[in-house]
Amino acid sequence: MYLVEKNLTKLRNLGSTYFLDPNELNQVKCKLKKNEYSIYYPYKDSEKNIIYTSKEPEVLLYEIIIKAPVRHQDILGSMYSLNISPELFGDILIIDNRYFIYILPIVRNYFESNFLMVKNAHIELKELDINYLKDYERSYEKLKFIVSSNRIDTVISSIIHTGRSNISEYIKKKEILLNYDYLKDTSYKLKEGDIFSIRRIGKFKYNGTIKNTKSNHLIIEILKYL
């Protein structure tokens, strides 16, 4: 509740929140009337977005120019190592071996002065027009599974080819996130649009049930982030 109140205070005082992940966004939306806010999406399929009540918020887009290939988590780890709060930067995108990140102007000077390396590789930053990726849509690999139910432990066990009982070990080690929070309940039934990630395996979006089989199982579709 603290984070919700914190963002509501920002909305009242500043006219907008900072970046919100989907879980935070839904929590704040629940406290607002539908006609009293708008949502700023940096691009069509963005995950971290901003709620605002007055003018559209200013957001900056940078390309991270780096010679050595890096992963999303490498860039994320570098941002965390600089103690840049997740609410101050938006999505990190890797598109055709190019790297992009959205940030808020409030952190611009610190970001430009201190974000100099990813892993052991030196980087350059190039500010782009905010609309440069406006029409970008994420790429996914579509996966289909036949499962007995849409319980998250059942779905994950199908993805990683392990027994459902082993999922509890992943939970104990905090290796599964559901909607940007650590998974606590293995019996949770996935809803369309739910996002979950498994450490060292990947990030996924539950796209819902396609149909039921004659044996009363479910054919479900999962989108794996590329």
How do you describe this structure in short?
This protein is an alpha+beta fold. Helix content is 23%, strand content 31%. The protein folds into three domains: 2-52, no CATH class; 60-128, Alpha-Beta Plaits, CATH 3.30.70; 140-225, Structural Genomics Hypothetical 15.5 Kd Protein In mrcA-pckA Intergenic Region, Chain A (Roll), CATH 3.10.290.
Domain module count? 3
Task: Bin the strand percentage.
Answer: 25-35%
Radius of gyration: 19 Å
Task: Kindly report how far apart the N and C termini lie.
Answer: 33 Å
Tell me, briefly, the overall form: globular
Largest sheet: 6 strands, antiparallel
Order of secondary-structure elements: HHEEEHEEHEEEEHHEEEEE
Number of helices: 6
CATH topology assignment of the largest domain: Structural Genomics Hypothetical 15.5 Kd Protein In mrcA-pckA Intergenic Region, Chain A
CATH class of the largest domain: Alpha Beta
- How many extended strands? 14
Please give the order of strands in the largest beta sheet.
9-14-13-12-10-11
CATH architecture of the largest domain: Roll
Name the structural class: alpha+beta
